[in-house]
Amino acid sequence: MVQTKFAGSNLHFKPEDILPSVSTDCVIFGLDNGKLKVLLLKRDIEPSRGLWALPGGFVLDFEELEMSAMRTLHDTTGMSNVFMEQVQAFGQVHRFPWRRVITVVYYALIKYRTDDLRAGPDASEINWFEMADLPELVFDHKHILTVTLQHLQNKVRSEPIGFELLPPKFTLTQLQELYEAVLRTTFDTRNFRKKLLKMNLLEQLDETQIGVAHRAARLYRFNPNIYQKLKEKGFTFEL
Predict the structure, then answer these.
(1) pLDDT digits 0-9 by tens, 210-231
(2) Where's the Nudix hydrolase domain (predicted)?
(3) Adjacent-strand bridge partners of 43
(4) The pTM is what?
């Protein structure tokens, strides 16, 4: 798993530093009460003013692609040390109405939050939307979301990246809800728990939920060090 670290985006650049034909877009996923959501901006500039879009922007001449995506993530959420990975490039000739623009898409998995989100100077609003209830999107962003979700679904079945969406301590029910939300399916609770616990990647804590109306459930946490050691011995995460 890759953790991005970014010190900040107070960059000073001139208009000529902008590469007008290369951009990065970020698909930022979060999990809210068992529902997979994506962070979108309402554009306040043309073209397509008033429509919702993925956070993104043009790459600067002195930036690596990943740095550009990290800058977008930081400017939008204020976060930097999170999981981020490149999906692919999208370069259909007419994807942007004014000129040829090729965009490289990254996705990030963050802990769901509604505070400190920033729309930025080119947007009038920022909000989370359920993947099952998206507004009209600009350009080819709906297609980008579809491809990125498929990428995420394949990834969570083969690597334990889903834990990036959960709090540090979680219940087995929250873990199951996560995988059901991402994979858009349902699991038999008994079989799901048996399979995950058999992998020995979870630490059972001597703690239970606090402040819940129902019976407090046992809390667990994912141990990345154990996963890395098992991986070096040939362990394969398969869900």
Answers:
(1) 888 788 899 999 999 999 998 8
(2) 19-153
(3) 123
(4) 0.88
